Amino acid sequence: MDVNRERNKEKLNFGLTCTKYILFLLNVVFVIASVLAISSGISTIVAFTSYYYMMAYGFNALTTLWLVVGIIFLIVALVGIFTAFKESTALSNIYAVLMMVVFILQIAVSIYSFTLINQIQDMVSYQLRSMMTHYSYDSQVEVDWIQSNFQCCGIRDPQDWLDFEGGLYYANAWNNYHSFIDSQLNETGIRMPVSCCKPFSNYVNLKCEHYHSSGCFDAIYQIVSASIMMFGTSSLIVSILQLLGIILGFYFARLVRGKKTQRDMQIWNTNQENSTSARQETDYSPIQW
After folding, report:
1. What pLDDT does residue 174 have?
2. Which among 58, 215, 235 has a CA at the least distance from the CA of 129?
3. Closest to 245 in 3D by CA, of 17, 13, 11, 19
4. 203 by DSSP, 3-state: which?
């Protein structure tokens, strides 16, 4: 009986130690993953700040949700590291429940990301169209930033500036600053911002001598689609590991509870043996006359 009891005790202690270190290492991975998630979310927001209109159409909600989940995930992972060394049944159960909440949020991010994939083309086209339509020399800089950095012009090609009358709007703004109207604006050609021009190209009468022939759609589409795919795929992969964290959390709580029960039983058995020994000594003590 004592041999089996000692064997069960050793088995329980071995399982508890292994689970403790696995839980610790898993939450270290969670801390690293959450830090990477937070940094990538901040980097995405900073990168898209230069062309703020790209943050609309649901993409801003995705990046915000990704950042919030990353912060919550970091807090829960730190709780998990503390739980691994505290060996508390209540704390282990709380950790598992909190990880379940993060798991649900992570799945929500993944689902939301994959639903946005089908809308990327409309998203990019709509936002580029909106920026070009409201382009003005004195206030709108997002289009110039995009066209200069990606060496592109228009949405699909430079002809888009004619479709949205961007050249006339740009010319009117130019006139407000310089108080003249050039008679050559009615000549054939495409009036466009200077950001459409190739480096060292002459820019006369709002026209480029050499301009970028490709549109900006493909470049922005690649960035937005890569960001959304990164959010969705990363959330799905991390959620699988979080499911393992939930299982380990509840299992660790069970092992801790088993260890405490075993310790209580050992204390109770020891007390019973001491009580029995004391009773036997009393029964067999010699009578004093």
Report:
1. 40
2. 215
3. 19
4. strand
- Interval 52-111: pLDDT, tens: 555 555 677 788 888 999 999 999 999 999 988 888 888 999 999 999 999 999 999 889
Say if residue 287 is exposed, middle or buried (CB neighbours under 10 Å; 0-12, 13-18, 19+): exposed
Q: Which residue has 């393992």 as its token pair? A: 244
* Residue 13 structure tokens: 């202690």
Q: Which two tokens stand for residue 129?
A: 């169209």
Structural contact between residues 195 and 188, judged by C-beta atoms closer than 8 angstroms: no
* Phi/psi at 230 (5° precision): -65, -45
Which residue in the block uniquely carries the two structure tokens 């001598």?
A: 209
Positions of the chain with pLDDT under 50 = 1, 166-188, 284-285, 287-289
DSSP 288: P
